[in-house]
Write a structure and sequence with these properties.
Blueprint (H helix, E strand, L loop, with lengths): L2 H28 L16 H8 L5 E5 L7 H21 L3 E5 L8 H13 L5 E6 L5 E6 L2 E6 L2 E6 L9 H10 L1 H13 L5 E6 L10 H7 L4 E6 L13 E5 L7 H12 L3 E5 L3 E2 L10 E6 L5 H7 L1 E3 L2 E5 L2 E7 L9 E14 L12 E2 L6 E3 L6 E8 L4 E5 L2 E4 L1 H4 L13 E11 L8 H4 L9 E10 L9 E4 L2 E4 L14 H13 L19 H6 L1 H33 L1
Parallel strand pairs: 1-2, 7-8, 7-9, 9-10, 10-23
Antiparallel strand pairs: 1-5, 3-4, 5-6, 11-12, 12-21, 13-18, 14-20, 15-16, 16-17, 16-19, 19-22, 22-23, 24-25
């Protein structure tokens, strides 16, 4: 081949490559295409997320406190958070700002401690991690795996780590990554939401007071406005201003008019959370006496709940998977000696991993819980059990005598043969009024032209244990202080009560479909550690040798082809 022709051919090839590159750059600047080739679509935002991001009219600033020297698992969580925020930026553009902060990288001990206290007070939960040092030792480090989201002067904490003690660390971190989109975008929605949503705690029937629900109120108030009040029997629509109503452990019966007001509120699409104790007994009653009688607590709502699709049974569950309580085992006239013993009337309830409310949820601690059954065959109502007891459960009927001496006795496991008893149920659909086909004026004393026999599509939660929403109290300087909801003072653990109630409330009120993001599943692809140890050397050789061999082979091939080409010319 003539050298002049060869050079012209090379110039043409170079020109073609340059034109192609320029064309690609031009098209990439005007045509935006993103492809998610992952099997589980982990980089594809939901429609609800895109809608919320598209409606932002101001800057959302996210400060993520996951930075610095982190273990591999937390580094994955940190990188997944950044990738998600980058995806948010693709949709919302300059309305998303974020920064990653290391709350430990502060030389001044006082300043560092002050920052940690501020983060804790704002709602971020710290956790201890173990760091491998260069010298071979290990050290403990406190981190705050969460973020503070700010929008128009308002701020909301987001805890990114889902820590379920029943699951291995890898699974907890994977669950945390799975829930990232829900946790972050729900904070955006609550800060930039179109309206203020109201939640009411009902009073008038001996329900838990403000101090005993302070643990959950502190969480709810970040998302909703909280009210407390009695049902106004003169105003049959007195509940209609509330997006949800919480009935927290009543001890006195409801009147027919009060039942009617609640019923018609549900028929008009209202949401209700029932935390009901069908049996009257609590652990505090055993503090100053050796035994107490568990009596049936008639609240006059059995017929109402039955019509909606559930029956709360007047019994108690005993579970081998339960809390421990301190019990004095010293003999008479000896100094008190307390040891932890299982208290079978305080079961640890497992959540339904297929439902968005309880997916990945820690155990929920209960106290004197009862069994709840789904009844009826109304095709317009769907029911799903959210909380169950363990496989070793015993059911005892009320009335019965309850004594702390029962904790001293070794149980007969053969009696714990009623596994997985339901304690909490979510109901959804179009409910039928309990007052249907009845003379309303004879029940409430007047006519109601707005009466509805059947309702709009709505949801309600029914829990056969009022203590699930009750927090414990501690006394500091003669002043009672509420403990966090779900905190067990004897073991020092915090169970999933707070998350359960808050998730359930969000699910009831959810109108954007965000809660469905909690069912998103990312496949956990873990290495076989035993196989890695056995075949470590082989894979090191492959990873180092194969790429080097390919480079050498390509170099030799290119050299051979070049010599052959010029030899031919």
């Amino acid at each position: 081949m003539d050298k002049r022709v060869f050079k012209i051919q090379q110039v043409k090839e170079l020109a073609f490559v340059l034109v192609t590159i320029i064309l690609i750059c031009f098209l990439s600047g005007h045509i935006f295409v993103r492809l998610d080739l992952t099997a589980d679509k982990r980089y594809t935002l939901s429609t609800a997320t895109r809608d919320i991001l598209g409606e932002l009219d101001d800057v959302v600033h996210v400060r993520v406190y996951l930075e610095g020297d982190l273990p591999v698992g937390f580094r994955r969580l940190r990188n997944a958070t950044q990738e998600l925020l980058d995806e948010f930026r693709v949709v919302a553009g300059s309305h998303i700002h974020y920064e990653f902060i290391d709350p430990v990288d502060i030389d001044d001990q006082g300043v560092r401690d002050d920052l940690h206290q501020q983060l804790y007070n704002k709602g971020l939960r710290p956790t201890n991690i173990e760091i491998a040092e260069r010298g071979g030792g290990r050290s403990q480090k406190i981190i705050f795996p969460g973020a503070l989201v700010s929008y128009k002067g308002m701020e909301m904490p987001v805890n990114l780590l889902k820590n379920n003690p029943a699951l291995p660390a890898d699974q907890n971190l994977n669950n945390s990554i799975q829930s990232l989109e829900y946790e972050l975008i729900s904070s955006f929605y609550n800060l930039a939401g179109p309206e203020t949503r109201k939640v009411a705690f009902l009073e008038g029937h001996g329900e838990l007071d403000e101090l005993l629900v302070a643990g959950i109120s502190g969480a709810i108030v970040r998302y909703y406005d909280i009210y407390r009040g009695r049902i106004d029997e003169s105003d049959l629509q007195s509940l209609d201003d509330y997006h949800a109503v919480i009935i927290a452990k009543p001890v006195k019966p409801f009147t027919e008019t009060e039942k009617y007001v609640i019923d018609q509120y549900i028929m008009r699409g209202g949401k209700v959370m029932w935390f009901i104790d069908p049996v009257a007994i609590d652990l505090d009653s055993l503090t100053y006496q050796s035994e107490a009688i568990a009596l049936i607590n008639d609240l006059n709502i059995d017929d109402q709940l039955f019509r909606y699709g559930v029956r709360i049974n007047p019994n108690l569950v005993m579970d081998m998977h339960c809390l421990l309580i301190p019990l004095n085992v010293a003999l008479a006239r000896e100094q008190a000696r307390f040891v932890p013993v299982p208290w079978y009337f305080s079961p640890l309830l497992a959540g339904n991993d297929e439902h968005p409310v309880t997916r990945g949820l820690n155990y929920v601690k209960a106290e004197f819980a009862s069994v709840i059954d789904t009844v009826g065959s109304d095709p317009a109502v769907r029911s799903e059990v959210l909380l169950r007891t363990s496989s070793e459960t015993r059911v005892v009927n009320a009335p019965m005598m309850v004594s702390l001496e029962m904790a001293r006795q070794e149980p007969d496991r053969r009696e714990f043969n009623n596994p997985h008893q339901p304690v909490a149920v979510m109901l959804e659909g179009e409910f039928t009024s309990v007052f249907a086909n009845r003379i309303i004026s004879g029940i409430i004393g007047r006519e109601d032209p707005g009466f509805r026999e059947s309702g709009q599509n709505t949801r309600m939660l029914v829990v056969a244990d009022g203590d699930i929403i009750r927090n414990d109290i501690t006394v500091e300087g003669n002043r009672p202080e509420p403990l966090p909801l779900g905190y067990d003072r004897y073991s020092g653990q915090t169970f999933g009560n707070r998350e359960f109630v808050l998730n359930a409330l969000n699910y009831l009120i959810d109108e954007s479909g965000l809660m469905e993001l909690r069912t998103r599943e990312l496949q956990l692809r873990l290495l076989d550690r035993a196989r890695v140890r056995e075949q470590r050397g082989m894979w090191q050789i492959i990873n180092l040798g194969v790429p080097l061999a390919i480079v050498i082979a390509l170099g030799l091939f290119y050299s051979w082809q070049r010599k052959r080409r010029f030899a031919t010319g």
